[in-house]
Amino acid sequence: MQDIPGYDFGTAAVAESPLTLEALQQLQETVLFTGEDIQYLRLAGTVLEDQIEAVLDTWYGFVGSHPHLAYYFTDPQGKLLDSYLAAVRRRFGQWIRDLCRAEYDRAWLNYQQEIALRHTRLKKNQTDRVQAAADHIPLRYIIAFIYPLTATIRPFLATKGHSPEEVERMFQAWFKAIVLTVALWSAPYAQEGMF
Predict the structure, then answer these.
(1) How far from 165 is each of 64, 73, 74, 142, 174, CA to CA, in Å?
(2) CATH number at residue 132
(3) Taking residues 30-49, what's their average pLDDT?
């Protein structure tokens, strides 16, 4: 893996998740995430590895085509912060890899909390030391992103000659992993005792 600025997975710089590993397991059970899903997520990771830049092009194109989303990457005058977009993109690409390779251990759980905090007033803009117009991303957009992050992945999963059934299983595993992740990213937005 390349050195990615701001990518602190597994280090002491990462926030600690408020959830226990038992709570994570219960959340996995709630989204019907099984060992078979882990297998198909690993397969999805191998399928996506050489397509990550194309996936990111799709996602960045989506964000860029909606001014209300691109706003979170602009300076106070409304100009896109290209260096900020580029830095986040590198971590976003690594996030795809991490999602497909996750061990669902304490390090992974804690890093989800760190990512979550970086969307809130507690840490947004700090990792990349930028002066973005927005100091947080509203929870409604975090939740709404479940669909585009899921719907756009299927064509990429179908590029390597796997059977329709295998593609569907990879897709379902990805979908469950996205829902699980977004649930975890919701933690900092909840009032104390409500998550």
Answers:
(1) 33, 38, 42, 29, 14
(2) 1.10.490.10
(3) 98
